[in-house]
Structure to design on (229 residues):
């Protein structure tokens, strides 16, 4: 049954029905994992593990998409960028970005960007219950402002039934966002890929879809939450 399900996934993939094929790939792998658990024959176990490895590798290769955001491009607000991956089953989100700290740094608004991202999650089709933020401490006098702002965001999210867990690391460098439906998005500039608006009353100040962007690359992957047998 697992092999037949994966065969169906390949057919859906060829028909460009990517979301459906992804579900079939995952179901097929899960079925084969169940077979491995129930099998006592070591030869069969080895053969099934090989198949699982092949299908997992295939899934890795199929589900990597790269988006190139050009300098001054518009139309890349958070809703537009993430909506495809925020399915209804998303309930937990991980954000790793070392620069979610100063309200104003190099003319860009890091904490406000994170707040905007949280607003998108609250009003989206998903039912997010927990957001995990891993970032770095601000330096000097900015730390107090950082902590106050993050605590305010945390309290505000709790009013919508969302828990914000905040952790700090001095060695974090990578920037990535993960959803518990398996999608992982890596943005070269993290959430801070928008240019400074020309003024507080200029088009694009409030609507990020109309805000010019800085050049960056977005890599989208799908990870599998399966244990090795």
């Amino acid at each position: 049954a697992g092999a037949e399900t994966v065969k169906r996934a390949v057919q859906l993939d060829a028909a460009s029905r990517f979301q459906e094929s992804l579900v079939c790939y995952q179901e097929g792998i899960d079925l084969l994992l169940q077979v491995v658990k129930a099998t006592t024959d070591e030869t069969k176990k080895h053969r099934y593990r090989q198949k699982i490895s092949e299908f997992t590798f295939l899934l890795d290769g199929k589900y990597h998409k790269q988006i190139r955001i050009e300098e001054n491009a518009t139309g890349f607000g958070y809703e537009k960028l993430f909506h495809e991956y925020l399915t209804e089953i998303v309930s937990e989100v991980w954000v790793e970005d070392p620069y979610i700290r100063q309200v104003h740094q190099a003319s860009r608004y890091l904490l406000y960007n994170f707040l905007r991202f949280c607003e998108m999650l609250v009003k989206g089709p998903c039912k997010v219950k927990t957001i995990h933020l891993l970032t770095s401490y601000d330096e000097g006098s900015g730390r107090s402002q950082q902590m106050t702002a993050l605590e305010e965001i945390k309290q505000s999210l709790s009013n919508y039934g969302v828990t914000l867990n905040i952790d700090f690391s001095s060695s974090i460098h990578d920037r990535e966002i993960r959803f518990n439906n398996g999608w992982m998005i890596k943005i070269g500039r993290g959430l801070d890929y928008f240019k400074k608006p020309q003024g507080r009353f200029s088009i694009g100040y409030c609507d990020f879809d109309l805000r010019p962007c800085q050049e960056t690359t977005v890599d989208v992957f799908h990870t599998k939450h399966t244990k090795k047998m």
Notes: The chain has six helices and seven strands. The radius of gyration is 21 Å. Residues 65-222 form a domain with the Endonuclease; Chain A fold (CATH 3.30.870.30).
